[in-house]
Structure formats: structure tokens, C-alpha cells
Amino acid sequence: MVFKYAPMSGLILAFKDYKIAHGFWGSEWVGLEVFKDIFAKSDFGRAIRNTLLLNVSDLIFSFTMPIILALLLNEVKNALFKRVNQTLLYLPHFLSWVIIGAIAYQLLGEGTGMINNLIANLGGTRIPFLQDNVNWLISYIFIGVWQSMGWGTIIYLAAISGINPELYEAAVVDGAGRWRKMWNITLPSIRVTIVTLLILNLGHVMAGSFERVFALSNKATTEFTTTIPVLVYRWGIEGGNFSRATALGLFQAVVGLVLILLADRVAKKLGEDGVI
């Protein structure tokens, strides 16, 4: 609680022209001037666009893949094979983005990457996976899917394990195959879990991962790497403008809260429980 809520007092910097020499309370109060300043910056619009693009793409692929993977793993009957695959799929979650970024450049680098070396040895043309803006965007999304899909399946597999086995037995009696049982029993039974996680994930649409973008970025690809967390870092840590960085972070948090509340309201309108 201390580390979550005590730092929130620092949000007052978003309404002050903070100067280190004047201190936290001695800096001049400027009201909403800092927000007007950041909204007028060209980097702000670019950061909003990139943050939404990356996070909505993540929501489409990284959110749906664990569901698909959990459904497929649930159909595996060989316990040893299932455990080995689960372990291998979970491992990327425990790697830091610094390590994942280094692995990505070792594998996908245009000049010395292992995959491009293999393509060149087979007579093909090297592909700039991480050195071209569009290719970087595609690589960013699929690296994120690889990193998160195994861990995301834990929740869904836990939800699936709670389904009454008698439902499947009744479906077998009625002549239902695996796909029909998956569609008519498994998916509807874990719908509450899916909706709850979807609502929580919508709150991160305006946030994103600073570590992931920073670890995979380079000077050749700058079109999609300016996001809100990256801009907070540039303005606050690199530029020393703590008021501007705080205001941008507060704006991001408020938008995230609004998205969660709207998603929760829509879910309740559709007959779901929601999270609030």
C-alpha cells in the first residue's frame, strides 16, 4: 500500500512548474498550463497514435493467443507431453525484455542474425526484421505474443479445470466431437474469465511496456517507437522536465481508468458480472 499510494502525492507536479532548486512545495503553481503544453507538442500526437497501434495490436493477438493455446492444451491427453510443452511455453515470461531484445537481435538481425544467415545460405534475400519500420512492427507484435502466451494460458487452464466433467460426458452421449465440445462447452464456461481479463487489459491500452519498446528499438526504426511511456522517459529522465512527464503519466492513467469503467459498464449491459 505504501509503495502504491504514497507516491501519488507526486502527481501535484503535473500542476506546477517544478524546479529542483525551488523544491516540491516551492515551485510555482501553474494549473493546467503543463497539460496545454504537452497537448501542443508534435510528439504527443505521435505517441498517442503509436501507443494505441501497438497496444490494440497486442490486444488482438496477445490476448486471443493464450485462449487458443489453452483450448489446444486442454485437448492433449498425454500428461508428460502436456507438462513439457507448458513448461517450455511458460519460460519466456520469466526472461527480462533486455534478454529477449538481445535474443531477438541475435536471431533477426539483418547483418548477422541467425535466421537471415540461414535465408542467405539458402539463396534468399535478407529480411530487415528489426531494421524496417513495418517489419519492426510485425516483429514487435509476434515477439510479444511469444513472450506472453504461455503465461496467459495458466488462468484459462485453471478456469477450464473447474468445468463440470458431466457436461462433456453428456455431450459425448449426444455425439459431439472435440471441436463441438470446445465451442459449446469449454468456451462458454470460461467466458466470465475472458471478459474479466479483457476489461483489465483495456486499461492498459494507453499504457504499454516501456521495457519492450526500448529493448527492441534502434536508430533505423523510429516510426513506431515513440510511445507514451517512452515519451515520459525522454521528458522526465533524459530531459529533466518532471512536470511535463508527470502530466503525461497522469493523462495516461486517467484515460486507462475511463476505458476500464466503460468496458465494465458495457460488460454489465451484456449480462456479464464485470469487475467493479
Low-confidence stretches: none
Largest sheet, in brief, is: 2 strands, antiparallel
Mean pLDDT: 85
Strand order of the largest sheet: 1-2
Share in β-strands: under 5%
Total of helices: 14
Give me the Rg, rounded.
Answer: 23 Å
- Report the strand count: 2
The best one-word shape is globular
Which structural category fits the helices and strands?
A: mainly alpha
Describe this structure in a few short sentences.
The chain contains 14 helices and two strands. It is mostly helical.
Highlighted features:
276 residues; mainly alpha
What layout of secondary structure does this protein have?
Blueprint: H1 2-5, E1 16-17, H2 23-26, E2 28-29, H3 33-39, H4 42-74, H5 79-90, H6 97-108, H7 114-121, H8 133-161, H9 165-173, H10 178-189, H11 191-202, H12 210-216, H13 228-238, H14 242-269
Antiparallel strand pairs: 1-2
Structural account:
The protein is built from 14 helices and 2 strands; from the N terminus they run H-E-H-E-H-H-H-H-H-H-H-H-H-H-H-H. It has helices at residues 2-5, 23-26, 33-39, 42-74, 79-90, 97-108, 114-121, 133-161, 165-173, 178-189, 191-202, 210-216, 228-238, 242-269, and strands spanning 16-17, 28-29. A two-stranded antiparallel ribbon has the order 1-2.
